[in-house]
Amino acid sequence: MLSVSITDVKNFMAHLLSRETFDLFYLVEASFKKEISYHIDGHLNDDFFDTDSERPEREYCLWKEVRPFAFTIIKGKRLPLGCKIVLALPRATVAFLIKESHCSFREEDIEGVYLNILYEPEHLLLTTGISYRTFSLDKSLEQDVDDHMKRFLQKRGIC
Asked: Which Pfam family is an annotated match for this chain, by its short name (predicted)?
């Protein structure tokens, strides 16, 4: 599991809220604490769609679909008291990482690969995590996911 403390909070928040950096990640959930608390559940509601063909073939909404709303919540003269955002890597990226890592896992063994963003005043922490459907002592995929995420963040000047 990767844990990165972000020192340039303003730069990271610009990437998160104003740029397309995380747009292709799925939003699992987000919560924002300001004068009131906001919670967003990223699961798509099946009942919203008229037909199966209308419904996207994914469980969660994309970050880019919620980003403008999140920006509206956060913007203002005062910083939020805190926020927590859980993003998931797209299934295609997870499949690529499994293939590239030459680990013993199959796609169906992995529930999800996550990037957790936790902001508290003056402190921003990113952590990665993998949810496995089966127990394993093999940690090679975790190392590869962490390396992939480090490169992703470094390439964009985030850390």
From this structure: DUF5721
